[in-house]
Amino acid sequence: MSYNVRNAIFDNFLGNAPDWYKVTIIGFLLINPLVLYALGPVVAGWVLVGQFIFTLAMALKCYPLQPGGLIALESVFLGLTSIDTVWSKVVGNLDVLLLLVFMVAGIFFMKQLLLFMFSRILLGVKSKVSLSLMFLLVSAFLSAFLDALTVTAVIISVGVGFYGIYHKVAAGIDYKDREDINTDEEIYELHRADLRQFRSFLRSLMMHAVIGTALGGVCTLVGEPQNLLIANTAGWAFGEFFLRMAPITMPVLVAGILVCIFLEKTKILGYGRTLPASVREVMEDDQAKRDAKRTKKDDWNLIMQGLVGVWLIVALALHLTDHVGLIGLSVIVLASAFTGVIDEHAIGKSFEEALPFTALLTVFFVIVAVIFDQQLFTPIIQYIFTLDSDSQVAAFYLANGVLSAISDNVFVATVYVGEIKQAAINGVINRDTFDLLSVAINTGTNIPSVATPNGQAAFLFLLTSGLAPLIRLSYMRMVLMALPYTIVMTIVGLFAVMYFLKPATATLYEKELINHHTIEQLKDKDSGKAH
What we know:
Number of strands: 0
Shape: globular
Order of helices and strands: HHHHHHHHHHHHHHHHHHHHHHHHHH
Largest sheet: none
Distance between the termini: 58 Å
């Protein structure tokens, strides 16, 4: 093979990923069979899990689907898991996959309404503290009922749109005349200080908003993908899930609000910058022109999107079906039918955001199958189960939080909820303990994971978006700006898990809301029977 051919093959492998990253992945694939032969399947399984977590941690270098998928494929070929086990994990989590596919696509048809709403908030609220709280709380509310990624996509669109308008005006260019907003070369010196302040203003709003998606996403079974997975495993409906999480999520929400106010008042870590008067003038002028051009058809679209949003919230709140993804499908049908979107190519665009992550989540299940078949987590779980009941719950919260911050919360939750389910079926823990540990896993994977962009998909989405370089939002700046939230929310969550979450609480829910859950129901779900 000639030198040029070898270069071409290497260049094509994982595309634009750094060369050191490509070599590392190739090394992983070559060393795994040797580790399996020399050290056995358990050690090989742990090595493979570590490699997969590495691909998640390096998601900014290369989307994890390709390198993680290669590692997952190799695990099947090496016999570390089987196709039957993988398929059982996929089928068992079909509701999660359908939620991602249909719900995110459905919300795509409501973006016009969401953009309209966030734009009104940005220009209508003059106080920076109030504006920051609005972004935090609105993002939290929307994420609780919709999807954190979609909400983040909306606020990114708002940020890019407003930044672009002022950037071009500051360069003396009509904002309709040019698309390029990535260079400051043409910016008048007079406007540079305002532009720097505007960037800082937008950075802080974006951070408050993505923190809000975490605060709201942890509360309901549709807020994050792992929530639905945990709810399905435990047999919890929408209302019960919310109430079981409330002893932890509500104190954490209050803590998040207080941190938001503190940061804006003290103006530390890049927070507290206000919207420059010159920028507000440009934004308001642009909004007035858009309002003047809005037609009756545009108004009707906003009304219909609002009605579809009401339907979505009511359908979820009343738990009209156990299969939440089907509600998302209804949103696609209603929103597209009544807003004039009937072309299949236009509809196809709605699925572009969801399908890559859906494929990645399916790869997760291959790794989970390896952990299940090789019983890799059994010693850790057995150790935690030797602790007293209160310590078990706190240990699960912290363990899931640390792992989620460095890897991915969906992956961690999938692994741990499967382990405690098996422990309950085997009689190691009772149903009450299973429920409490499920709450600890859900809150642990959602709250401390705000520490890094790796831990939350919405954070990673913002960091890899086109807005991040425009407002100078780097990886380390994001970690630093999230640090106060991380510390306070994690500590408050741990305190709530230790002192507010008790077996008696679960028993109260069972008596007042639902029929008594039993271990037999977990066995039925494990065997594929109807719950």
